[in-house]
Amino acid sequence: MYIEKIYTPSDLKKLTIRECQELAKEIRKALIVKASKKGGHLASNLGMVDATIAIHYVFNSPTDKIIFDVSHQCYTHKILTGRKDAFIDEELYNTCNGYTNPVESEHDVFRVGHTATSISLACGMAKARDLAGGKENIIAIIGDGSLSGGEALEGLNFGGSEIQGNLIIIFNDNQMSIAENHGGIYKNLQQLRETYGKCENNLFKAFGYDYLFVKDGHDIEELVKTLQSVKDIDHPIVVHICTVKGKGYEHAQMNKESTHWVRPFDIESGKEKNPFNGARYDYIIRDHLIEKMKKDERIVTMIAAVPGALSFSEEYRKQIGRQFVDVGIAEEHAIAMAAGIAKHGGKPVFATMSTFFQRTYDQISQELCINKMPATMIVVNASVYSADDVTHIGIFDIPMMSNIPNLVYLAPTNRQEYIAMLDWSIDQTEYPVAIRAPRNGVFDAKGEVDVDYSELNKYKVVSEGKEIAIIALGDFFQLGEELSDKIKKIYSINSTLINPRYITGLDKTLLTDLIKNHKLIITLEDGVLDGGFGQKIASFYGPQDMKVLNYGLKKEFLDRYNISEVMEKNHLCADIIAEDIKNYV
Amino acid sequence: MYIEKIYTPSDLKKLTIRECQELAKEIRKALIVKASKKGGHLASNLGMVDATIAIHYVFNSPTDKIIFDVSHQCYTHKILTGRKDAFIDEELYNTCNGYTNPVESEHDVFRVGHTATSISLACGMAKARDLAGGKENIIAIIGDGSLSGGEALEGLNFGGSEIQGNLIIIFNDNQMSIAENHGGIYKNLQQLRETYGKCENNLFKAFGYDYLFVKDGHDIEELVKTLQSVKDIDHPIVVHICTVKGKGYEHAQMNKESTHWVRPFDIESGKEKNPFNGARYDYIIRDHLIEKMKKDERIVTMIAAVPGALSFSEEYRKQIGRQFVDVGIAEEHAIAMAAGIAKHGGKPVFATMSTFFQRTYDQISQELCINKMPATMIVVNASVYSADDVTHIGIFDIPMMSNIPNLVYLAPTNRQEYIAMLDWSIDQTEYPVAIRAPRNGVFDAKGEVDVDYSELNKYKVVSEGKEIAIIALGDFFQLGEELSDKIKKIYSINSTLINPRYITGLDKTLLTDLIKNHKLIITLEDGVLDGGFGQKIASFYGPQDMKVLNYGLKKEFLDRYNISEVMEKNHLCADIIAEDIKNYV
């Protein structure tokens, strides 16, 4: 086994090309086995095994800087840079995370997880190198999917004329984003592949780059030869390599989209081991949208290269045909386009993760909200219960989005309320609306839910009590119910329980009414407290005698956390809150 | 005079081409005269007179949709669509704003002011049209400067393959952004101009578009002919027209950058009529940075196509040579590149307007703050005293930026404190730092200012009193001083006056100390209250007996406002606040 003897890239350099090919097989096997047991990014990594070997064979990391885009394809890089055990020893599987991480290794330059960042980061390093008079190679590795992102195109443009020295962009063309690609540049990439890089129009040359084409991105010998020819080059160049997503594992090659990222599966059959069969909001929303779209052809469901946001796999996308739009990794375009659709009588519904809405703050504010365009934004994974990698956590959308004027940000607490809000949002024509999908499980409403949300900022009193009022937002409503019960039990107080529903405004009438027979307000929200919902309530009561306790998450970048620990640390447990308030009751 | 007879575009269509040429002259004269008296965007509008006439001559607005990018070049469009009086009658000059505005006219599709939005907005309208079975032309007008923006490139990519029907992109190539262009695509545009659109690599074709080239974008006859040939076209096409920024006014043609946007000037000499000669933070920061850069070649000053952010006109840019980087209109790239520079030992300083930082929220959060890269962001025009168009107001950056973990957002209150914070930020290596430039004039420190800000969130007690504490942030510190005096005078109370300095955190020790002998806290901030600074103070004191009054701006999109009125409406006057607190003292 070669893989066991690789401690640093210098061990790799001792191998022959033939031995590197054997190593590639061993790495693929390790990747498949680990993914089958732990899950993770699979097909994307299988495609980059050979190229990553060639890159480390030719360049000298960490002197030369290798910057991965998204970095979900960096597993081979981790194996070759001292972290093989995290891939071959099951007990050590958890010692590596799924993205590049400078804390793990000096060979990892940045902590990244969002797309389209590598070229700009590389330009910055190249600029610093040039100012310092250095000579090291600066290498960005970016996939064809990422190239639709505005940040990548901005970086590509800048690098094409403003970096005078060495800049090597390895463009990994596997003809896939997570799903299929969308956009005009992909027609050009096809022409480039068909002509072995020789067609008349060349996107990269049009951006000002020198250019090389490598037909088979799995041919280590060819890759090594090409990379040796560009090592220490004195100007920016794009090396366009063609790879196969999922290479070396038939199930992955045949199911590129579903094996981009996987949960534990059976290697033989490719089947997921423990599929979740319960109720899920992504399914609920998707199915409701499809039904609704069939009745109203003005509705357009939009995603930005992440069909998983609503589990819109290919069979579902086909069902709605031209009413489904995947803009590619292009969130800014998505929101601006939604504004255009809404302006011209369409009903856009754009769904993506909380963390990816961060990529389009300005368009939400300017195109959507200044223009008051009636578009619906479905915000998923917006919760402490959601993705736990630091680059993907979903606890910042409330401060980011809810302080933009004109936006109506809704926080449903159960299935029926969610659907009612979604229906209202799609059918109204007055406001940009965002809806925050709960992540604490799917609960059913205990009574009728309202269907009209046009009277903005009207909170719902779920149970009327006194002394203490609990304002429990979105998927922390169930925590509010639990807390209410606990308070009843411990202090014999019937507290008032409120479902505020609107994140973007205060029900001042209700809040004022509460002053009469309440002395303590408790707010609960599933996101960072700073700039969030509860602090607005605290500010409202600032001039009053009312005591206010805001519960939510501390402003910090959580990473690969234990949810229970985080909840406890932030006092987000009915027991702890009940104890906290003992001096106020 | 033809201009006087144009009430709608149909009046224009009655003219001969020859008469259109005369009209163009009249329009240019009106633009120059109005700009000389009122200021506004000048050179950019002069370049688009003929093309705008041709567009309205050929297409049928408002059935056909004309979407301007940035829309600072829409003055001729306004003249041709019923708003000529706002350009020829001095008393009516104020009846139009400087950007497209649907409130003014059905011919204005969107309220925009930021760059790079037009293609995506047009894609949305084209999509809605196609779903509805419509046939109208959808036209985006975008300049070469805007094309460096990621959103424009995302839109260009999408439109190049995903819009099946009519989409006409009129690409106005005047070889300028506000200043010169930066990026590889501008080399390609030069080749296209030199070969009359026939060179081997064609950026637009590489993005999937049909393409036409018009050599002289001031030749109305040629433009009309070309546009007639693309009218009702059944697929996306780019019409590349070459224009001269400032066309028809020699002073503008010779000074394209300084006449992009002007203050009132003398037409004969081109000289500004009432130049401001007082102290200005843009000059102070620029001069300090230049001095500092000369001593430390690791410092890189970066802008994103807006040299005016720091008044970095050409003579100053030349002084610092390769230590100055203009990334073009590419804020996402700017922040990611800054992270790259910082990671590799450089000291990046990126300056732009508050409103443009909105375009790079995700990069600030991910590339900069997750990675804790020591970069400096200079946030200008972040104030109610700043630009007053709804698309450019600078009152949202506190909620947007200050709730991102790891960021240190500083609010200096005077010149010496600003310089000390800037020096500290550039020389430290621990934190991403943003500094909010005051806009209420340049004040001098009344005593020594601290030079070390590494003890985060340490507020400065400027005068110690009791009963009432005023926490006055940034450029509202002077309002705090005034209020303190007023309280002394009216209530004979020596209040405590605090300069918090840090927007991003609480000085909990100090805030706790205040409980002893204070009963009222007043916070003042120059930005929207929601999600901002004061609400964090209110939340901190929520469980206490302390009363808290937060003063700042209401969450709303202000537009072309009277500052005094806005200040009064929001109670941001010492008199009004002193009256407000009468029941608390």
What is the name of the CATH architecture of the largest domain in chain A?
Answer: 3-Layer(aba) Sandwich
Strand order of the largest sheet of chain A: 9-8-10-11-13-12
Stretches of chain A where pLDDT falls below 50 for ≥5 residues?
none
Structural class of chain A, by secondary structure, is alpha/beta
Shape estimate of chain A:
globular
Mean pLDDT of chain A: 97
Proportion in β-strands of chain A: 15-25%
Q: How many β-strand runs of chain A?
A: 18
CATH class of the largest domain in chain A: Alpha Beta
Helix amount of chain A, in percent?
25-40%
The greatest inter-chain interface is formed by: A-B, 120 and 120 residues
Quick one: biggest sheet of chain A? Answer: 6 strands, parallel
Cofactor (chains A, B): Mg(2+)
Pathway (chains A, B): Metabolic intermediate biosynthesis; 1-deoxy-D-xylulose 5-phosphate biosynthesis; 1-deoxy-D-xylulose 5-phosphate from D-glyceraldehyde 3-phosphate and pyruvate: step 1/1
EC number (chains A, B): 2.2.1.7
Family (chains A, B): Belongs to the transketolase family. DXPS subfamily.
